[in-house]
Design a protein that fits this description.
- The structure is a single chain.
- The chain folds into two domains: 187 residues, outer membrane lipoprotein receptor (LolB), chain A, CATH 2.50.20; 56 residues.
- The protein is built from three helices and 15 strands.
- A twelve-stranded mixed β-sheet has the order 9-10-11-12-13-1-2-3-6-7-8-15. A three-stranded mixed β-sheet has the order 4-5-14, with no helix packed on it.
- Strand 7 and strand 8 form a beta hairpin.
């Protein structure tokens, strides 16, 4: 009798434990300080960004954090269908949504003051994992390096936290806690890491993906506009506008013949004046 009672208690505890785990999900919140140095000698742009990794949903949202609470992650109940809704103000220009189930992520990029949703792949990172290690906020981290869209990077990741990383950076077997480009253009350092649990729910993509561009589509559009701006002349005494080849990432490749020919033509035309 005592043995049967003991087995029943163990079974019930196992059931309730499994139910409790199923009824909630883990969310890792990582706050990063991002430093962007556009030009040496000038004051860098410093901002705080938050990464929310929804572990069981295998998705994440990265966005800029401010005192005005640009972002909110809340739970709503609609016909008993619980879901997370992400409701930032503005145009989501500092937001990035990753769906690890589909191997894709979404962000917004600008061309001539107009923003476009860009769909990209999570399988684009050519990391090389090194033997170097160090501790960051109590987590043992390992060094990895890569070349990515015009820049070389160093990153420190920990396998003690779920896969993820700030901004687009990802693709390592754990969470990227620190990252910097070798030219010091951009860097990320963690400020705080917090683990919370919330009611099991679905997480909706905050972007309108119907007309999302691929990365190549975006590069082609950016280059087309850049070539048009070379011929832009608001008056006879003003030459065209030379666009940057990129920002954090390279939009126009250094060996792009079409753009380089248009740029050479522009320089020859206006160097004579």
């Amino acid at each position: 009798m005592l043995r049967n009672t003991f087995l029943i208690i163990i079974t019930l505890l196992t059931f309730y434990s499994a139910f409790a785990q199923k009824d909630s999900i883990n969310i890792y919140k990582v706050l990063y300080e991002r430093i962007l140095t556009i030009e040496e000698g000038r004051k860098p742009f410093i901002g705080v960004y938050e990464l929310n990794k929804f572990v069981e949903l295998n998705k994440s949202i990265y966005t800029k954090k401010s005192k005005s609470k640009i972002t909110e992650v809340v739970i709503t109940d609609e016909d008993d269908d619980s879901r997370f809704t992400f409701t930032p103000t503005g145009k989501n220009i500092s937001t990035l949504f990753k769906d690890y189930n589909n191997g894709t992520f979404y962000s917004k990029h600008e061309v001539a003051y107009k923003y476009f949703v860009v769909k990209d792949s999570l399988n684009i990172f050519n990391w090389s994992i090194q033997n170097n290690s160090k501790e960051i906020l109590g987590f043992k981290c390992q060094l990895a390096t890569m070349d990515f869209r015009g820049r070389k990077y160093e990153a420190w990741f920990t396998s003690d936290l779920p896969v993820g990383g700030p901004y687009k950076y990802d693709g390592l077997p754990g969470m990227i806690l620190e990252l910097k480009s070798i030219d010091n253009f951009i860097s990320f350092k963690p400020i705080k890491i917090k683990n919370t649990k919330l009611k099991l729910a679905t997480l909706e993509n905050p972007f309108d993906t119907k007309d999302a561009l691929t990365w190549q589509d975006y590069k082609d559009l950016y280059k087309k506009k850049a070539i048009e701006l070379l011929s832009y002349r608001p008056n006879e005494n003003t030459g065209g506008v030379v666009s940057s080849r990129g920002g954090i990432e390279l939009y126009i490749d250094e060996d792009d013949k079409e753009y380089n020919d248009a740029l050479d033509k522009y320089h020859k035309k206006f160097s004579k004046k």
